[in-house]
Structure formats: structure tokens, C-alpha cells
Design brief:
alpha+beta, three-stranded mixed sheet, 3 strands, globular
């Protein structure tokens, strides 16, 4: 059993492993949503996400990265 959080590089790999079969099945992936956990932010940065460029490319498509602000409300 693994304890702790998943490293950002592993999170990037998970996303790619999920996006590929979705796109191949004809589903149109248009965005990814996550909270602002440090590993999520780092993973998105590894994928080239920034304030200036809030999307990354996958199979010649732009996929938006969205942070979930409501997560912060339920944690307060």
C-alpha cells in the first residue's frame, strides 16, 4: 500500500494514460479540473501550463487546465 501523495510526474503520466483511450474512443477531452494542491500545480507546470498559456496540447488538441475554486470553500 502506498501512502502519501502522488508525485507530479506520475500525475502527468496518469493523465496521458487516461486521455489517450478517451480520445481514441471518440470522446472529446476539452479540459482537466483539479484543486491547487502543490503536486497538481507542479504537474500542470510540467505540461506547460502557465497564466499566459492555460492549456496544453494532446494529440493536436488544446486541453484547458482549470483550477477548482470551490474546493477551497468546502475546506474552510
Amino acid at each position: 500500500m502506498i501512502r502519501g501523495s502522488t508525485e507530479s510526474g506520475v500525475r502527468v503520466n496518469f493523465l496521458m494514460e487516461v486521455f489517450d483511450p478517451c480520445q481514441n474512443a471518440g470522446l472529446e477531452v476539452i479540459d482537466t479540473v483539479c484543486n491547487t494542491d502543490a503536486n497538481n500545480v507542479k504537474a500542470l507546470k510540467l505540461m506547460g501550463i502557465s497564466e499566459k498559456t492555460p492549456f496544453f496540447r494532446f494529440q493536436d488538441r488544446e486541453i484547458a487546465a482549470i483550477f477548482d475554486p470551490f474546493h477551497h470553500l468546502k475546506c474552510t
